[in-house]
Amino acid sequence: MREKLVAQVLAFILLFSGYTLTSPGVISNTNNNAPILGSTQYIERIQKVAKVSGNRSALSLIMIDVSKNGDQLDNNQSDNIKRFHKLVSSLIYKIGYVDIKTHYFRNQLNRAPKTLKQLMLINKNVSVNKRWILLNAINSGYHMQGVDGEYNLKFISYDDFYEAVYNKKGILLDEHNDPINMGTYNYAAGICSNKAHMKFDVDPYLIYGNTLNSTQKGKDNIDLGVKSAYLNYKEHAASVYIYRKKLFGMQKGRVE
Hints:
Blueprint: H1 2-17, E1 19-23, E2 26-29, H2 40-53, H3 55-69, H4 78-95, H5 100-109, H6 116-124, E3 133-134, E4 153-156, E5 163-166, H7 196-208, H8 219-235, H9 237-248, E6 253-254
Antiparallel strand pairs: 1-2, 3-4, 3-6, 4-5
C-alpha cells in the first residue's frame, strides 16, 4: 500500500514538474517551459522528486534535462551555475557511489574554452580569484600520455569543478580527439570531504576510464600509461620547462 501511495505521489510531482512516466521506470521531460538549470525553481523541482522517489531518480532527471538543455550551462547566470553544481554534488554524496552511467555523465557537465588562446584571454579579463589554474607537470601525469604528451597543459577552474587539457597546438582535448588525456568534471568539488575526490572522481576513472570508447581502462593499464608519461616527461623536462615559461612565465598557479 505504501509503495502504491509513493508511486502516486511521485507521478503527481512529475506531472506538476513537467515530467511523465512514458513506460515503467522511464521518465521523460514533457515541459518545454521547464525552469532554467540551476534556477531556484529548478532546484526545488529536483528536490521534490528526491524526497519522494529518491536521489537516484532525482539525478536521472538531471541527466535528462542536461541532455535536452545542456546549452543552458554554457551561458547560464553564475548563481544558477553554482546552485546546479551544488545540487549535483549533493546528490552524488547522498547516493554514495558513482556507477558507470553517472561517471560518463560528468563529460556532459564539463565546460572549458575550446583553445588555449581563449583560456588565456579569459584569464586576462577576470579577477585573479576567478581564473583558470595551471597545474604543474608533476600533477598532470594522467593527462600527459602519448606523443608530445609532456607538453600537454592541465588547468582546473577556480571552483575545481571543471578541467581543461590542451595539447602543444593549443587545442582542447576531449572525448572525441583524445579520450585518454582529456579533462573531466569533478563531482567532489562540491563535497566537503578530503576523501571525496578519490571516491567520486578518481576511483571511478581507474575502473571505467574517461569514456566508454577509451582504450585505456583499469587501474593497472592506467598506471602503466602514467608511468610511461612521467618517464617521458623527465626525459624532456628541460624543454617542457622552457615551453611553459615562454607561454606563462610560470610553472604552476594562476595564469597572469
